[in-house]
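MODEL INPUT / OUTPUT PAIR
PAIR INDEX: 1
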Amino acid sequence: MSNPEVKAFFDEATFTICYVVSDPATHHAVIIDSVLDYDAASGRTSTSSADQVIAYAKENDLTIDWILETHVHADHISAAPYLKEKLGGQVAIGSDVTAVQSTFKGVFNLNDLVTDGSQFDRLFDDGDTFEVGSIVGRVIATPGHTPACVTYVIGDSAYVGDTLFMPDFGTARTDFPGGDAALLFDSIQKIFALPDDTRLFMCHDYKAPGRDVYAWETSVAEQRESNIHINKNVSKPEFVEMREGRDSQLGMPKLLLPAIQVNVRAGHLPEPEENEIRYLKIPVNAV
């Protein structure tokens, strides 16, 4: 099994980890779950987080083949279009993004939104493969948090999006449109079926109670043994009951409304209106 080099970029404002995963033999690479900085109070964007990724890629002479999304994020805005402009690469996501687009087109009344996924360069189905230089990547559909969630397995590493958090923090919520706790349980079993020593990389970390540092790398064996929400001793009915009960107590992510509108468009902001200003919508009493 090949061992890609993994560089993590932690964005504390959104608790998001973006990864650059590269093949040491060929210097080809992918970027996973990028971040466009967004200040909700002012409505201003900046590219400081993405610029760190760009600097790393250039310093290490990396050729970016793919800019991958594990799902349509509800807690940060993707920097995929900006990274593609600066570094190249194809923007890709799971093929069930079309279901997410159809749902939120109605919520936000996005009359201009095409819901066939064509905003992305590639839609991955379960079992599809892609190349990172000499390393083969594989796509596992892992719905539950959202319908379009996928896990990318690259060599001895896997990038699970929000499906799992660190073992002391648990699992993803399933109360967004199209979420399903029973599906999430089944999806996690697919991840648990990977080799024990597979390196698992989280999309977020929030520091579990009692832990003083952020962390985002674990293993299949560690998750299967000690995840506080789902491990080898937790049954499916037990997990569903826990997950649904916990979800009913959670608040909305603070960037959900702007993030979803942008991320269903593959990270593209809405087109400027006649005054040359772009606008995001806030649905009142609708979500």
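PAIR INDEX: 2
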Amino acid sequence: MEKAPKIIDGKQIASEIKKELAQEVIALLDEGKRPPHLVAVIVGEDGASQSYVASKEKQSKEVGFMSSVYSFPETLTEEELLNTVDFLNNDNEVDGFIVQLPLPKHINEQKVIERINYKKDVDGFHPMNGGRLMYNMPCFLPATPFGVMTMLERAKVDTVGKHCVVVGRSNIVGTPMSVLMSRNHSNANCTVTLCHSKTNNLKEICLSADILIVAIGKPEFITKEMVKDGAVVIDVGIHRIEDATKEKGYRIVGDVKFDEVAPKCSQITPVPGGVGMLTVVSLLQNTLKAYKHEIYPED
């Protein structure tokens, strides 16, 4: 396939959605209501986590949300973190909050996730939201799969009846992604194959994909030999690779070897500037839903 692929521009899509969110916030303020409030809790000094939380705070303010960050040292105890979660659960001025992962090894991540009030779980990680997702009930979708579904819809990707291959099976991306793509919905209705590091004949399965969603967490894992002509490729991965030729000393790549795969695709997401742009925006969309009690109506 010789013609240049259409780049699915995550930055542009995110910008459009943020304008829509900002208009909703203006309408709320005009009615004399407070803006939605999103909180992030971060423990330790992980650079990637700090960058993500800073981006969340910046983009929250761009759309007129209140944004708070609770930053703790790595020495924070599990009990102290659980007490913070309890405090946020009971604060009526907080609509949604996330506890940034990964957490230090002495803290049980699952225990913390389960302690979060699922009605404020805008990350969509609580088992209540995960279970409701499986049963096709209203829930908070995990931010990255939510973002991918939004990109497919806004880029007008034809999904109905297509073979979608998802590479990666995490609870945060791969598994919910496979469920969402199989739904009886105009933006889904795919036949889905879920692959992972133990899949036999991975290359052959990827070659059969009309839509290939890659979230395996390995830099430039997908090469041109694994992608058929005309496929739509969604790259969820993001990695910092050392590169002495770059001013910063590194370059950002995804799970897909973009330069060699892109010419074979009908549409493809870049890294950076692709799925990552939608992750924070999806978090903001979930927070507005929590504020308006759209998923879980008030008792």
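PAIR 2 NOTE: Residues 30-117 form a domain with the Rossmann fold fold (CATH 3.40.50.10860).
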